[in-house]
Amino acid sequence: MTVLHNPNTHLTAKERSTPSLPVRMLHERQLIRGKVLDFGCGFGKDVDFLHQKGVDVQGYDPHYFPQYPSGTFDTILCFYVLNVLFPEEQNTVLMQISSLLKPTGRAYFAVRRDIQKDGFRTHQVHGKPTYQCFVKLPYTSIFLNENTEFYEYQHVNQRIDNQSKCPFCKPASRLHLLAETPLSYAVLDGYPVTKGHTLIIPKRHVADYFELTFEEQKDLVQLSAFVQKRIKADFQPDGFTTGMNIGKVAGQKFPHAALHLIPRYTGDCKNPSGGIRAVLR
């Protein structure tokens, strides 16, 4: 899936002499715990600050510190990154962060609240066009003033405030969450038909895929493309079958849309000829 890209996002990184307000405030509140990642760290001033405080922290920035993180983290920080990205790029960052966060971890996002209009503007120092936009996230807001807002994120299947009785609206905490966006999430199926069988599920309780909004459908496609790469790396399948059941006659058990991404392996069935066309045979 091709994602639009703004080549000058790195120009919005600021060289600061002091650590940012979000990192100082979160550190004072003792919310920065365990193994920490600063995602989109820019020049790394906040990473330096946390190092000095004895925190086990590393920084990642696709331009300034391009070594992509390995492993998972207890706390992930992402400050003023989303405001300079197109929507599809924002989604990619959110998927990356959710996939790097430990099951019981927390991620903290800071976004600007002083942006009046989305669009490109000429950078005062570099003289090149840079993009900025207003960002609102469906996560818990923990601080807000006229200039900035901080959010706390945790995996959808770890939230204790979710009282839904639908197993797709409230996925079990035991499930392995692969990645998440504001609109959908991907988990390893609890009853897989092959190794790596994954469900990509919209968060809104809708039974019929065709009743989802276009944005929700597009989100499912982007998330499925993201997790497919991970499944290929983790399980080395020889192919994939993907699809969904819509309605009881088609085998839909729960009235909540779900896209199945099923890795296929040589010899996993006697005769794979026909693929999905053979489902009625």
UniProtKB/TrEMBL annotation:
SUPFAM superfamilies: HIT-like, S-adenosyl-L-methionine-dependent methyltransferases
Any one Gene Ontology molecular-function term assigned to this protein's record: catalytic activity
Taxonomy, superkingdom: Bacteria
Domain HIT: 164-271
Pfam family, any one: HIT
Gene3D superfamilies per the UniProt record, alphabetical: HIT-like, Vaccinia Virus protein VP39
Name of the protein this chain belongs to: Histidine triad (HIT) protein
Provenance organism: Runella slithyformis (strain ATCC 29530 / DSM 19594 / LMG 11500 / NCIMB 11436 / LSU 4)
